[in-house]
Specification:
Blueprint (H helix, E strand, L loop, with lengths): L11 E4 L9 H7 L23 H7 L3 E9 L3 H12 L4 E5 L14 E4 L1 H9 L3 H7 L1 E2 L4 E6 L2 E2 L3 E2 L14 E4 H14 L13 E4 L1 E9 L3 E8 L6 E10 L6 H10 L6 E3 L8 E7 L22 E5 L9 E4 L9 E7 L11 H11 L7 H4 L1 H9 L3 E2 L4 E3 L3 E2 L8 E4 L5 E2 L7 H18 L20 H26 L11 H25 L9 H4 L7 H42 L1
Parallel strand pairs: 2-3, 2-13, 3-10, 6-16, 13-22
Antiparallel strand pairs: 1-11, 4-9, 5-9, 6-7, 6-8, 11-12, 12-13, 14-20, 15-18, 15-19, 16-17, 17-18, 20-23, 21-22
Helix pairs in contact: 3-6, 3-11, 4-11, 8-10, 11-12, 12-15
């Protein structure tokens, strides 16, 4: 979003930001493929994808001042879930989105989501689980194969690392574009649903950018909005603003300026995976897993199997690419590359140098113009990819301006918490935000009546501020917890070159083994749960809140430190006693 200046006036505060344990290789190969960042804009057309509303409809919706009970900024999974939840409570909702088709397939951002029990709980509440299961691959079906110069390993299942994993519904792997598309279809369906004044249709204001935000006592939030078709800017008003507009949230920056007291600061944590660069190579359907040999048919990639493509042992710098499983590879597959900034992959800026580099690095794979096409090699070489952000969270998740007449704003999704995909929790944390907002509204009985969108701004529900405050307090805690968990969970899975990298990975693996062994021992012996598995294992239990996992990890760390100090004291005591005995023997 690109927000420009607007004037301050009496009774109004205006803001306008400018653009703002054994061999873990199998598990690591799968986990390095998990992408939970960004939004998908542009790119190839998703089969069956819905276009945004016609431009004439946008001009109609944006003509004059229009009031909505709630406006959601951002049409990713979090924003669309929040919009559906608010509509279910009688709110007249508008979703503001800069792209024309938020569910369009984009080869450059073909991220995969791992929707676990946390995300599934929210999708189930929205009635979208059947659609999810129909477009995704279950974790129980997940198989991974390693492709090396000396052959292809048989597909194997991911190890079951959580002690109770089999008792729960398995996570589902789904492309980001497919998840957004099925959620956008649900939003679109509200416009053709039978007339129901208690559940108004959701206005999809796509191809629209937020260009200014202010607040006053009579109208609440005022949003200056511009359509990409060049029509004149319009003004929307609302009493509830949901900022689900991603990592560089314009809503969050606006709230920080309006609050003016240091609120909405972004806290960043150090993490071994932060700053890694990634980009995506498009592969054809039925991609060959070896170069053709005369008289032999090359094996092809199965869409239901994940693959880790390993480079030649003689490559100057190690490199691997990951293919996650799909329900169908009708659109082809994508290979994800994740490396450090200094990797020579980023020096290949044209199709010719890239083709030479790939043939030398992956001599056993047909990553060439004949298989991929000259245009795809050129696109991949020119593309600068993206970067994993540092784990970060906003210190506040809601804001109720004193002169806003009872209006409130909340943050959700990447606008509230963003992090590398190490634990696969980006989409799940965002969907939990939408679920938490709905739960707090229900807890205090907040609901809306039906009003005409162009009519005068009605008074907000009386307990809206209290519900938003309860949401903000709880989710700010969870946002801080998940960013800390990501920083400690599994940041070494990408094979990145790090100072003392082998030693750090060995320490991480030993930590996993020790904590798991102690936790299982306590469970088997019926002892108090003084020890808990490592964060990466606990996160697989969707019944645990992020803050609870953090407390469990901290408690285990404290107990281990106490035991280590006691062991050290005993060792020192024994050493002293042995020294006294030795001295006594020498002088007697």
């Amino acid at each position: 979003f690109d927000c420009h200046s607007s004037a301050s006036a009496l009774q109004r505060r205006a803001f306008s930001p400018r653009a703002l344990a054994g061999d873990p290789s199998v598990m690591a190969s799968a986990l390095l493929l998990v992408f939970t960042l960004g939004s998908s804009n542009g790119g190839s057309r998703l089969l069956g994808a819905r276009d945004g509303p016609p431009r004439s409809a946008l001009r109609s919706a944006l003509s004059g001042a229009s009031h909505y009970d709630a406006i959601v900024v951002g049409a990713g999974p979090t924003g669309l879930a929040a919009a559906l939840e608010l509509r279910a409570r009688g709110a007249r909702v508008a979703v503001l989105e800069r792209s024309t088709r938020p569910g369009a397939f984009d080869a450059e951002r073909a991220f995969m989501y791992n929707v676990d029990g946390r995300g599934q709980a929210e999708l189930g509440a929205l009635g979208l689980l059947p659609a999810l299961f129909g477009a995704s691959i279950s974790q129980e079906e997940f198989r991974i194969s390693i492709v090396k110069t000396d052959g292809i390993s048989p597909p194997v299942a991911l190890p079951t690392v959580d002690m109770e994993q089999r008792k729960r519904t398995p996570a589902q792997w789904i492309q980001r574009s497919d998840l957004v598309e099925l959620m956008d279809a649900a939003v679109d369906a509200t416009s053709s649903a039978p007339s129901d004044s208690a559940h108004p249709p959701i206005a999809r204001l796509y191809s629209c950018a937020l260009t200014g935000l202010s607040v006053d006592e009579e109208s609440g939030w005022r949003l200056a909005v511009t359509s990409s078709d060049g029509s004149a800017p319009a003004e929307l008003t609302t009493s509830l603003l949901v900022g689900a507009d991603g990592l560089n949230s314009a809503v969050r920056v606006a709230l920080a300026s309006l609050a003016g007291d240091g609120s909405f600061a972004v806290v960043k944590r150090k993490c071994a995976s932060a700053g890694l660069r990634y980009k995506v190579l498009s592969l054809p359907t039925a991609f060959p897993l070896s170069r053709p040999v005369k008289g032999e048919k090359a094996p092809v990639a199965s869409p239901a199997i994940a693959y880790s493509l390993r480079c030649s042992p003689s490559a100057a710098r190690p490199l691997k690419a990951g293919l996650l499983p799909l329900r169908s590879d009708a659109r082809g597959r994508t290979a994800n590359f994740i490396t450090k900034e200094s990797h020579p992959l980023w020096d290949c800026t044209n199709a010719q140098t890239l083709s030479v580099y790939l043939s030398q690095t992956f001599p056993h794979l047909p990553l060439d113009a004949e298989t991929l096409g000259e245009a795809e090699l050129a696109r991949f070489a020119a593309n600068r990819g993206g970067r994993f952000p540092a784990p970060q969270h906003c210190t506040h998740a809601f804001y109720a301006p004193k002169n806003g007449g009872g209006c409130v704003a909340v943050l959700a999704g990447d606008a509230l918490h963003a992090f590398p995909p190490d634990l696969g929790q980006g989409v799940n944390a965002g969907l939990q935000d939408a679920q938490a907002l709905a739960a707090n509204l229900d807890l205090l009985g907040v609901a809306w009546g039906s009003t005409q969108p162009a009519g005068p701004a009605p008074s907000p529900p009386p307990k809206l501020v209290a519900a938003a405050a309860a949401y903000g307090t709880a989710r700010a805690v969870e946002a801080a917890a998940i960013t800390r968990l990501v920083a400690l969970g599994y940041p070494f899975q990408y094979g990145q070159e790090l100072p003392f990298g082998k030693l750090r990975q060995a320490f991480w693996a030993a930590n996993v083994v020790v904590r798991l062994a102690l936790a299982k021992a306590c469970q088997k012996l019926g002892l108090p749960q003084l020890f808990h598995p490592q964060i990466f294992m606990q996160i697989q239990n969707p019944d645990l809140a992020y803050s609870q996992i953090q407390r469990n990890a901290d408690r285990t760390t404290t107990v281990l430190r106490v035991l280590a100090l006691l062991a050290l004291e005993v060792a020192i005591s024994l050493a002293k006693r042995a020294g006294l005995v030795l001295s006594h023997g020498l002088f007697c």
